[in-house]
Design goal:
Strand content: 15-25%
Number of helices: 21
Shape: globular
Distance between the termini: 40 Å
Strand order of the largest sheet: 11-10-9-5-4-3-13-12
Helix content: 25-40%
């Protein structure tokens, strides 16, 4: 069995677990006006618990400890009185099935809004944070302890203190944010004091039957709190804990706290092992452990006692079952796109909720899991082999339709072929092979190098056409007399464009930033221009890394600089309210895409039933494309 050690029983304190796998607390970022969990959230946890092989311990989304009225807004989840305790106890009862135990994060997250260890500004919201008095710190501890006792009464088997990633408690641990000179600041011991006192009081409140764990930042990856500090803090906390889960990163430096594709697999393991060597309680490993062989090796080698899987089970709820049966190729792997943090920008999903690029079934697992066979099988033509087209074809074929997928190029993937091309994108490159495998298993007839036009339609005679023809890069009008050549950012990334020594890249989102970095690393003089802020509205967990890479490679950045004109020898922009000519041998366009819908008019004229999905309907990203394909595949 591939994950033999992971499936062995384990124990945290007095809590016995059926295996060594913990499902991490994955918030869907839904806001309930009373702090309750929605049925969809509970059902999502239940769905993972009832799989043939399921986690030994399932962690609920973090519980706040204060009522909605105190925060002045809706909050995720809260346990602060008997009513909220009774509400969450119903959820606990539903999830504790199939031998699964349940845990929740309690305190340390978003409690005490506007307060912190020292006077500062919340970099997420821009609002000021006031230094807490000693009395307020003691009040906070009392508040969390009360909530912990209620959580224990609700039936939770374990409670996890969140002291990581720049959330409330970790602000006290870090010298970057803790500038106090009293007993809660200064030395490492003093900075850890609030967590020690909290754990001591929690133990008194919940007794020995409830396991106490913590997710602890042991290195902020920003040079302020180092692994040496982390080891010292872990040693201070260990006597009050039943298990410890080392973490890294700090939320102000957003690119350090989420396992994007820039991070190698198991990137936290060196930190995990360092803590394991200094404490005598179970250690829980985390951080891009979605490869079954890697996760198994972590426990088998003794680097950790348990493995915490968040996104791997978020992406594929059947991860454990497939790994246990040796079906690794069937596992849908997290690709590290961190779109799961961009719910507020997803206009196609309402109400806003945390979503996954690869798994459109989240929060509606049961409805999506069982594909309803069609009662009237149709001859369906899917035109376009990008992500939307592939997902639609897979879904339609699984439901019993006779599906042909046509792609005009010689390979499937569409724009994802560009997206996956970068040197850091190894995880992205797992997606198309997985989709090809699904297409084959579903029995889809795949035709590459085929252009769907009137002639093809007349011969094929489809009953239904799914138009998934995607989009192509936009250009800007340039006079034919200019001396520089013009290329597309996509072609630069793919290594298919010839560029001169002096390059001006127009467009400051991902294509533009990637192209600029690639060219600068080749020794070119690169300027990146955007009429807005560079990386505006882009995921900061990715954009922060690209920004750092651009600075390191010497890209000249010109944010908020509109283009005035294309001159004969370069690009004239407005900079500091004055004209500035950027000389160029090559200009690279990265100014977005436009839908390809030429076939729509032909279909309408031929009176063939059809629908549009993906970029040819609305310009979006991979999450939108896969979701659109999955949904239309369930409607036809």
């Amino acid at each position: 069995m591939m994950i033999e050690h992971l499936l062995q029983p384990g124990q945290i304190g007095n809590l016995k677990l059926k295996n060594r796998i913990i499902y991490s607390a994955m918030s869907f970022n839904l806001n309930h006006h009373q702090g309750y969990l929605y049925d969809s959230e509970i059902n999502s946890l239940v769905y993972r618990a009832k799989q043939e092989y399921s986690p030994g311990l399932i962690n609920f989304p973090g519980m706040n400890t204060c009522p909605p009225s105190k925060t002045g807004k809706n909050i995720h989840h809260t346990v602060y009185n008997d009513e909220t305790m009774l509400a969450v106890s119903k959820a606990v009862e539903k999830v504790r099935i199939n031998g699964c135990k349940v845990m929740t994060q309690c305190g340390g997250g978003k409690s005490n809004p506007g307060l912190g260890p020292s006077d500062m500004v919340n970099t997420n919201t821009g609002t000021p944070i006031r230094q807490m008095t000693v009395g307020e710190i003691q009040g906070y501890i009392e508040e969390v302890v009360k909530s912990a006792k209620l959580c224990a009464e609700a039936g939770f088997d374990a409670l996890e203190i969140h002291a990581s990633t720049g959330k409330f408690l970790s602000l006290f641990l870090s010298p970057y944010t803790n500038h106090r000179t009293d007993q809660y600041g200064g030395s490492v011991y003093n900075r850890a004091r609030i967590v020690m006192e909290l754990l001591q009081e929690m133990r008194k409140a919940v007794g020995e039957s409830v396991a106490l764990t913590t997710r602890l930042t042991v290195d902020d990856l920003a040079g302020y709190l180092t692994i040496d500090d982390g080891i010292e803090i872990a040693k201070y906390l260990a006597p009050y804990l039943d298990a410890i889960q080392p973490s890294t990163g700090f939320n102000e430096f957003k690119w350090t706290v989420t396992p994007a594709y820039f991070f190698k697999k198991g990137y936290m393991l060196d930190y995990t092992q360092a803590i394991k060597e200094h404490v005598d309680i179970p250690v829980i490993a985390m951080g891009k452990l979605g490869n079954p062989a890697l996760a198994e090796q972590v426990v088998a080698s003794g680097k950790a006692d348990f493995v915490c899987l968040g996104r791997p089970l978020f992406v594929d709820p059947e991860w454990i079952t497939k790994a246990a049966k040796g079906e690794e190729k069937e596992i849908l792997q997290c690709i590290g796109c961190v779109n799961c943090f961009m719910e507020n920008d997803r206009r196609e999903i309402y109400p806003p909720q945390r979503a996954c690029t690869l798994n459109p079934s989240n929060l509606r697992e049961e409805a999506f899991a069982e594909l309803v066979p069609t009662e009237h099988p149709k001859k369906v033509l899917v035109a376009g082999g990008g992500l939307a087209g592939m997902e639609a074809a897979i879904t339609l074929a699984k439901r019993g339709h006779h599906v042909t997928l046509c792609e005009k190029s010689d390979k499937l993937g569409g724009q994802w072929i560009v997206a996956e091309h970068g040197p850091e994108k190894a995880e992205y490159r797992t997606l198309i092979p997985h989709k090809k495998n699904e297409l084959q298993n579903a029995g889809v007839n795949i035709q590459c190098g085929v252009t769907v036009d009137r002639s093809y339609l007349e011969k094929f005679k489809p009953e239904m056409v799914v138009l998934a023809t995607g989009a192509v890069p936009k250009s800007l009008p340039v006079d034919e007399n200019v001396k520089f050549n013009v290329v597309q950012g996509n072609d630069v990334i793919m290594g298919e464009a010839i560029t001169g020594q002096r390059v001006v890249v127009i467009g400051g989102r991902f294509i533009g930033m990637e192209a600029a970095i690639k060219l600068a690393r080749e020794g070119k003089h690169v300027s990146l221009v955007d009429m807005q802020e560079i990386g505006k509205n882009a995921n900061p967990r990715l954009a922060g890394v690209y920004r750092n890479q651009m600075v390191e490679s010497g890209v000249y950045l010109y944010p908020s600089c509109p283009i005035r004109r294309f001159a004969e020898t370069g690009v004239e922009i407005t900079h500091m309210d004055l004209p500035l000519l950027l000389p160029a041998d090559t200009v690279v366009f990265a100014v977005g895409t436009k839908p390809v819908i030429d076939l729509k008019a032909v279909l309408e004229e031929m009176q063939i039933r059809h629908c549009l999905i993906g970029d040819c309907k609305h310009i979006g990203d991979a999450l939108y494309a896969i979701r659109d394909g999955a949904e239309i595949g369930r409607l036809i």
